[in-house]
Amino acid sequence: MTKAAPFSTFVVGSLPRPQWVRDLIEDRKAGRISGADAETLLDDAVPSAIRMQERAGLDYVSDGEWRRESYVKVFADAVDGFESDLLAGGGSPFSTLPYPAVTTALKPNRPIATDEARFLKSRSASKNIVAVPSPYTIARRMWDPHHSTSAYATRDEFMDACIPIVRGEVRALIALSVEA
């Protein structure tokens, strides 16, 4: 009998952040610190998230998603067409965080995760993994019948508009040789 190869190990979801990193993300969102100053501080913080995973012996390491307010909101941060904090919990019964709602047609304004991936690859020789939210998850959390129908009549229409943006980001990550 042949022994199966072990399964790959990696962090699922965001790596827990120290309080000062959480505070920094909130300060950036509230405008108490500039985006550039926040990025400089996060450039110092993220390598510790990478090292924790490497020391734990994970097969794939990430940046811990430490730069993001949330896994899903990173899409709204990179794409125009959203109004902040309109939706309580983003349609999830398990969240109390306010989420943005799509209110106008989508228009990408910067990469979703490729900058995170470049930084990760510059700081680690380990195999790497970068999380990108799916069009379904984005549509589930950020389309609302009270706020979004003037931009996209249905959740499915909004989801369809997300597909080429997410596809483009995944292609960019593949071009950077992101492994997962």
Count of DSSP E strands?
A: 4
- Mean pLDDT, to the nearest integer, reads 93
Counting structural domains, the number is 1
Strand content: 5-15%
Q: Name the shape in a single word.
A: globular
CATH class: Alpha Beta
Q: Architecture in CATH?
A: Alpha-Beta Barrel
Main β-sheet: number of strands, strand sense, barrel status? 2 strands, parallel
Helix content: 40-55%
List segments where confidence is low: pLDDT < 50 over at least 5 consecutive residues.
none
The CATH topology turns out to be TIM Barrel
Q: Give me the side-by-side strand order of the main sheet.
A: 1-4
Radius of gyration: 17 Å
Secondary-structure blueprint:
Layout (H helix, E strand, L loop, with lengths): L18 H12 L4 H21 L4 E2 L11 H6 E10 L9 E11 L5 H10 L3 E2 L6 H8 L12 H21 L5
Parallel strand pairs: 1-4
Antiparallel strand pairs: 2-3
Helix pairs in contact: 1-2, 5-6
Please explain how this structure is put together.
By secondary structure, the protein is of the alpha+beta class. The protein has a single domain (19-175), classed as Alpha-Beta Barrel (TIM Barrel). The protein has helices at 19-30, 35-55, 73-78, 114-123, 135-142, 155-175; strands spanning 60-61, 79-88, 98-108, 127-128. A two-stranded parallel sheet has the order 1-4. A two-stranded antiparallel ribbon has the order 2-3. The chain is globular and about 55 Å long.
